[in-house]
Amino acid sequence: MTATTTLLNALLPLVAQLPNDLPESEHYRRLLAALRTVLPGDAAALLRCERGDDGDDWLRPLAIDGLSPDTLGRRFRVAEHPRFAALLAAGQALRFPTDTDLPDPYDGLVAHYSGAPLPVHDCMGCVLQVDGQPWGLLTLDALEPGRFAGDGPLHILQAFCNLAAATVATAAQLRQLEQSVHNERQRAEHFRRHTPVAAPRLLGHSATMRALQRDIATVAASDLAVLITGETGVGKELVAQALHAQSDRADQAFVSINCAALPDTLVESELFGHVRGAFTGAVGDRQGKFEQAHQGTLFLDEVGELPLVTQAKLLRVLQSGQIQRLGLDRERTVDVRIIAATNQDLAAAVRTGRMRADFFHRLSVYPLQVPPLRAREGDVLVLAGYFLERTRSQFGLDGLRLEADAQSALLAHHWPGNVRELEHAVRRAVLHALRRPRTAGAFLGITAQDFALTPALIAANAYPEGASGQFASNPVTPTVAADPAQTLSLRHAVAQYERHLVEQALQTHGYRWAAAARALHMDRANLQRLAKRLGLLPASILGN
């Protein structure tokens, strides 16, 4: 069988499967599987060329075979990886000499090799050209030196890349057609006339994240009010930014306001603006958030913290689009798309009288639930890889590897603080690992011990699914009485747990609000509001 026949036998099934309703990542995974059929190696990757907001060229892994799962969460700055730069500059298939001194970007990432760093091995890659431009890279590694020796493997890789580029281009065209069918013609015309703000990346390949991304694409093109719910740290603001970036308002302002961080006396001024002399300290005219967001999007974070009086005034604005600055009799008309977010159960707040029912229904025209990290199967390693690569670049490190025990611990941990907790944990783990002595040029292996994820801690956080409630942000282990009728309600248990944490933080830091808030990873105003709600201190003391 000739090499050409082998290539066609490997690629023709991929072309035939393109119309199938498969995730794009699955098409790319099968492409790598075909490559390793033609050229057996130990690791392969397909990377997409991207231009970053900083103007630099980056490579983002779309599919991997034989590399650590967290590789999918990384982005490689081309300027920091000379092997990638050499492949892009070559513009064709290139094999690196086994004695090259260029650092390997996959040091620490080959799944079935745990040494440090990678030994002398065989490595080659090729640029995928689409419409005469570099679309991405295919890379192939073998741990055995000389595996790809001679001209044959190089010619085969070049031929494979030429055919694979056509496959990738066809897949991209099919995806564009699907997008065109999904979007209204007016929105397509809008995107042709304007350069929209790039949508933030919502990392993850789990079914729950794919469903969320589909919901975002569905509602983004409309002007419907969206209520984003989810636990603390799941990335609700990122979802709001993605909604704005995919909307017809993408070239207009995205204005965000944290409702929980505003004193009650300044909420109206911040939202609607004021004129000079409207109140003590108003030394000049000031636009409110609604005016700043005119023709754009206003994001109301922690909307459940708004006072009832402000809710009534906001309801009028949502109904009529009319706002009135404090101290001014004249009204103004604004055109604003409202996106709100909360980690509270607002339906329960309506039942208890803490939120107006009409205001709640105005906000929740299209509700979006952001899944907690524990419900996003496998995404924790993708996100960990993203945070590791960003930390590596910021710290100027040669390479970071997530060891097998760390991967297992990350997958087993319940992550009550969700993505935000994971990001902080990765940074702490890297700093902890840096304290260990290591040889020059060796990559830095991050272990479970660096994350301080002991089996006891993982077990303590592994409370049953749903036990913390839909919007709770901390694991709760309520005391269970002998008589089931005396078992604490979930709400009571959560309140007790919160009260204990706040009291402990205040006592530890001598009742200094700022220090206690930092220890609890909270805003000072949020902590004061929480203390007031828990009845820890009278309202008259909260301003001290």
Detailed description of the structure:
The chain has helices spanning 3-17, 24-38, 82-90, 151-182, 185-193, 207-220, 236-245, 267-272, 289-292, 308-320, 346-351, 357-363, 379-395, 404-412, 418-434, 448-451, 455-461, 490-508, 513-519, 524-534, and strands at 43-51, 57-65, 76-77, 94-96, 122-130, 133-142, 226-229, 254-258, 273-274, 286-287, 297-301, 322-323, 332-333, 337-342, 366-369, 400-402, 444-446. The chain has 544 residues and is of the alpha/beta class. The protein has a 6-stranded antiparallel beta sheet, with helices on both faces. The chain has a 5-stranded parallel beta sheet with strand order 8-11-14-7-15. A hairpin with a 2-residue loop joins β5 and β6. The longest helix has 32 residues, at 151-182. Residues 188-198, 463-488 and 538-544 have low confidence and may be disordered.
